[in-house]
Design a protein that fits this description.
Helix 1 runs parallel beside helix 3 (66-72), helix 6 (122-139) runs parallel beside helix 15 (360-395) and helix 16 packs across helix 18 (476-496). A seven-stranded mixed beta sheet has the order 1-7-6-5-4-2-3, sandwiched between helices. Strands 8-9-11-10 form a four-stranded antiparallel beta sheet. It has three domains: 14-80; 113-358, Aspartate Aminotransferase, domain 2 (3-Layer(aba) Sandwich); 379-502, Aspartate Aminotransferase, domain 1 (Alpha-Beta Complex). The chain is of the alpha/beta class and 503 residues long. The chain has 18 helices and eleven strands. The chain is globular.
Length: 503
């Protein structure tokens, strides 16, 4: 007898899958095409979003037709989202998704390999290995091993774990930090370093007190002299310096630490030198990249984010180490139920994940489509547009330029009558620009974020967006100034009434 077919509510035959897929692609293409003409985001509340997407209802007992479900969803989903693909999105280091990356994710999901072991994802494993090599080649880093992870935090954490395993003179993986007999492992990072290092120190059992926060010079780069003094003090106290973090493009301002000088300090003292290049490392590919940025090639490890300046859809980070075997020494175990062949590449032994998605495909496809020269042009274009914005800010009578580095420009609104003595009005200007940021983020015309530069609250515009054009950048100063003047007038009127708290 023929066995009856199993009823599976999630199953689709080829014809239905084709019809739904084609219809969805058509909807998405139309919605994406309309993004530049609309707002960057809409001013909506959580309850508005829940109502629009029916997110307060209980789990349905019965399912619904997938065609109806997919037909209904894209419109309200797009209507209640922030578009990092909008040409006037300057808020964070989040890029627009390259279309080929979107299609790559679709293809990767269809295959659905587990890229933890070679046997479970042979083609996916080899594509990821080549993707890591190509990323390293693009930025000029001599790669030994590497793998793709979720993003910058995890890429940096992976490299810190590798540094810990390499530096500890005892078996830190078996005995943990306590097995060092009271000898404390310490790490060094500038005060501009991203908060990933605090998470990493916490997760790895070091504790955040193991971090030495090194002061910066006025240009917000690590003070190498202060680094040397901190290391010497720890050595004299019997501690073990194991890691120095240099930043290739800080999140706030795009500052690049003096990586070559830091590398020399680390070589002389035999300390692992790691570069957080999640944002800025890809700018090393540009022909006129600074010597400081190109010195990332001297690091022992580096973290980069393809979902930033390679314009890959989220998520895609990458951890790369110079020495072959360093990641396996930090992560590999050989439980009997795996029984992998030694000669096969098994990414489960290179990082913390066992089950791993095929996130390399979207990056690999984009690298093949654009090539190294295409990426150099796009990254250089973003940097040039940031410089154009800085020039426009400097020319504007009511804007003050604070910093410009890589593709990040920071500035603030300053009313004309306060320009002669801004220091005397810093407290007011901080409140004014904080209110201005809120208005801009809710207004939808442009989207910027904020930074604090030497105690001054700044607006921050970051360009990692191949959709952005000169006219989009040129629109920023008049929009900011118009909102700034309106908010300033309101704040002064409120103060004159004596209602200071409402400002």
């Amino acid at each position: 007898m023929t066995a009856p077919l199993r009823e599976a509510p999630l199953a689709m035959d080829a014809a239905q899958f084709k019809a739904l897929g084609h219809a969805l692609v058509d909807q998405i293409a139309d919605l994406l095409a309309a993004v530049p003409a609309g707002p960057v985001t809409r001013d909506c509340t959580p309850s508005m979003i829940r109502d629009a997407l029916d997110l307060s209802s209980p789990l349905p007992e019965q399912g619904m037709d997938p065609g109806e479900l997919l037909a209904r969803l894209p419109g309200p989903l797009f209507a209640h989202s922030l578009f990092n693909a909008h040409p006037r999105f300057f808020g964070y280091i989040t890029a627009p998704p390259a279309p080929i990356g979107v299609l790559g994710d679709f293809l990767a999901s269809a295959l659905n390999p587990n890229v933890g072991s070679w046997i479970l994802g042979p083609a996916a494993t080899e594509i990821e290995a080549q993707t890591v090599r190509w990323i390293a080649q693009l930025i000029g880093f001599p790669a030994g091993d590497g793998l793709l992870v979720t993003g910058g935090n995890m890429a940096n954490i992976v490299c810190l774990v590798a540094a810990r395993a390499a530096a500890a003179p005892w078996d830190v993986r078996t005995g943990g930090i306590a097995a060092g007999g009271g000898r404390e492992l310490v790490a060094y990072a500038s005060r501009e370093t991203h908060t990933w290092i605090q998470k990493a120190a916490d997760i790895c059992g070091l504790g955040t007190a193991s971090i030495r926060w090194i002061d910066t010079t006025p240009d917000l780069r690590m003070d190498v002299g202060a680094l040397e003094r901190a290391i010497d003090a720890d050595v004299a106290a019997g501690r073990l310096p194991f890691l120095v973090v240099g930043t290739a493009g800080s999140v706030s301002t795009g500052a690049v630490d003096p990586l070559g000088d830091i590398a020399a300090v680390c070589r002389a003292r035999r300390i692992w030198f790691h570069v957080d290049g999640a944002y800025g490392a890809f700018a090393a590919a540009v022909p006129d990249a600074s010597a400081d940025l190109r010195a990332l090639a001297e690091a022992d490890s580096i973290a980069v984010d393809p979902h930033k300046w390679l314009y890959a859809p989220l998520e895609a980070g990458c951890a790369i180490v110079r020495e072959t075997g360093a990641l396996r020494r930090a992560f590999a175990y050989h439980p009997p139920y795996y029984r992998f062949e030694e000669q096969l590449l098994n990414f489960v032994e290179y990082g913390p994940q066992n089950s791993r998605g095929f996130r390399a495909l979207k990056v690999w496809l984009a690298l093949r489509q654009a090539g190294a020269s295409g990426y150099r042009r796009m990254i250089a274009g973003d940097i040039a547009l940031s410089g154009r914005l800085a020039d426009a800010v400097e020319r504007h009578a009511e804007l003050e330029l604070l910093t410009q580095s890589l593709s990040i420009t920071t500035f603030r609104y300053v009313p004309r009558d306060m320009r002669q003595d801004v220091a005397a009005h810093d407290e007011y200007l901080n409140r004014l620009n904080a209110s201005l940021l809120e208005a801009l983020q809710h207004g939808g015309e442009i989207f910027v974020s904020n930074a604090v530069i030497a105690g001054r609250y700044a607006l921050r515009a970051c360009i990692v967006n191949f959709h952005t054009r000169a006219e989009d950048v040129d629109a920023v100063p008049p929009i900011v100034a118009a909102h700034g003047a309106r908010i300033d007038a309101h704040m002064r009127a409120t103060i004159s009434r004596g209602d200071v708290t409402s400002t």
